[in-house]
Specification:
Largest sheet: 2 strands, parallel
Strand order of the largest sheet: 1-2
Length: 911
Amino acid sequence: MADNRFKISELSVLVASLFFYYITDQFKKNPSTEELFKSMSLYSLVFLGLVAFLFVLGEKLSPRLLLLSIPLSFIIRLPLLSALPVASTDLHRNLMFGHLLSNNLNPYLYTGQDILSLIQVGKLSLIIPYTPSWDTHSYDYPSMTILFFSFIIWSHNSLFGDPFFYAKTILTISNFLIAFTVYRIIRDYTSWSESFAIRVSVIYLFNPISVYQVSLEGQFESIPTLFTLLAILYTLKARDVWNDKNKESQKHASFYAYLAGFFIGMGFLFKYYPIILFPLLLIYLTKVKLILKAFFAFLISVYYLSIPFIFSSAYITNFLEYQSQREDTESISHAVNSFGIQVGFNTLSLFFFVGAAIIALIRKNKQGVLINLSAYTLFFFVISGSSLFPWYLIMVFPATLLARAEIYEYSHVFSWLLVVLFFQIIWFSEPAHISTAIIIVAIGGIIAFLRLFSKETKEKEKVRKTRPDLRSPSLIKRFYFKFEENSKFEILLVLFSIAGLLAPFTGMDHDMNVWLSVGQELVTDHTNPYQTGLVQTEYYAYPPPWMFVIQFFYWLSQKLGFESTIYLSRFFIKLPLILAIALTAYFIDSYLASKKVSDKKRKIIFIFISLNPLIIVISAMWGMFDILPALFTILAVIYLMKSIEDKENLSLPVLSGFFMAIASLFKLYPIIIAPVLFLSLPSIRSKIIYSLSFTLTVIITILPFLILDSEAFLFIFEYHSSRMGGGLTFWNGAWILIVKNQITEDEAGQMINLIAISLNLFFLILIYSLVYLKKFHEDPLTPSLIVALLFFASFKIVYETYVVWLIPLLALWIGLSKNNQKKQKQNKKQKEISTAQLIIMSLVTFIPLVYLSISVPITELFYLNFVKEKGEFIKEMPFLDKQWILFGLGLTFAITCILSAFYVYSSRKKS
């Protein structure tokens, strides 16, 4: 009997498909709006008969029926795929704006009228009919939509096919994937039967809204719907696998949580509505680890897939502006107003979303409740919006097919079949004529939603009998697990996301203007930037390497066509700084790994560098390049330590000398540890090689500029040497002396120079002598860090940007240091990082940040006027009050550096 039912169901679908094909083929022969109405009406009647017959067959349907329905559903759509849309210009419009992007034009900056102007002057040649329906607006959908339609245009240019056919074929395939995803969710994660899953999936494959609105009109709602359903599926999988409560399963659960966040982000980037389901998915995940991973994956996908357009303010404002101006007639408000009722449906929707989240918490995150809430949240969102178009059922229909509620199951499915007919009436009638139909649909949805409160729906979560194979993960999973082992991949993604968001829209006015001017002088004007310093107040005042970096990245932005966009110009100038942060963390972590440092300690060090707020503010916001000398200093120290370990490898001191020279040529202050490295080398031969490498690198770099214009080049040294004390030092007190004792600035500068330089030389000679006397046991890192700390404690000018150079040295030392073992019980574990080291790490980071917020308010690093005004109160402080605060912070930092140097020196012996 069961086999007969299988055959009868397959035969019924085959017979219905013949009718469906005849109907769609007849429409293709005479396509028009009137024929579309007749074709959809006839199709819907046959469709209702097929659905009724499937329900008559009861619970004995085979998965084979679903496999048969997919190719049959594609065949009946073939006549529609090759026909042009007749009832909507949306596909024309989407392809038209996609054509803009394929021609390197930003679709968010051009209206339909602008496109027509480009066509008329011969600057653009469309391969599709121009549609005037978008004349007064530019594109308003998110980034993935325009990238998708741009890909369709590119496919046409490459494969010489019909762009309409390409687009509709991909959208049709996404419908098949929707049906399969619905089947998977019902089969694996609900208590409903597999036959029900097969039935509703087949219904979706043949429903007239999907067939006509996707395969004929080219409406793309099927893609965000697919991503939304995948997000629901992987949310369920994540929680399900996590319940196994073992490490291997939880690794897979984390992977599924990532996919859930990624897919909801992808859906959001096609159309904004999937975001309304995201809070429900996060609540269902329950575990903080899974929630964070899903949320992080969402942010990453949204940011990186929006990068091509995020620098254009129109990317977001176009959508808001267009939605606020819409006066679409297909709105439920018209239906309700026809009864004389005035209701704020957006407010009702908001209350519903909040209520749904509360229900999800109260009901303890049951699988059935999650699926029902997802369906009805989407349902209410659609019917309460400003517009109600027929193709909106593409995204509502599959979700509501999931929402089976006990005795309501059959009437619920049939109610949505009636909606198909109602939307045909909407398309061809005035809204006032169909108000009753819409209200009936809304009431049906509300009744179904209220079923969530009934006792009948309090079902147990379905636990899958077959778990995913955790022993043989797929290639993608293995790739994920590789990075999941130490979370370095996640940390770097956070770094690039934060820094990438800040870089285009922030910057110190003076410095960023100088960098951009240097790029223009080198790449466009072919002039010597050093010569500018003799005649202008804003000029380049550093050795050549940073200038070379600017030149390359400015040239790169010019080649990519971004030099005229200020946001992208700033981004490209800061890009090497962001990369340098990641490389610094990577090289330190790699060296610590080679020294068998524990994963936990390495992770803390990695975060301390990668996500250090001071480094990110100075590099990604300010645009100052101290992270580059920090990177090359770390490389110099690491290669020198390797040279001490491998005395026969003479390439190691060569590399150390080269990197030390490059670090000193970015900014001069790293040169103070060059003698420490020299004295730490074990043999005279290695010292000579190191010195030659260092010296030749310096000469080769600066000699061309000395020959070209020695006066202009040496002016930068005169500029720095003539500056009086300041920055994050106690020498700020000199400004108080000038005001109170009426000392001139020149007199104060001479006094500071004499005392500060003498004190600094004393500390340097002291540490150099200790190194020479072998007091550090061939350990170049410890004396280098002490020299750096004492330099910051005593030098006349220590800007907060300089501290970026200190942080990696401190991090490397902490990573390699071992806490002195106290006489404790053997079973008591030694601390990974001591309390003193944590305090030093925190103070070295946050004291400069506090100083920065006072001396140059962080808000001033933004170019937005409304942000700048918030920092003006700091400038209005009385001069002496501000200087006393700066003096106090400088003195605090100097004391911190001295105490830290003493701690480092006292801890130098290995335990």
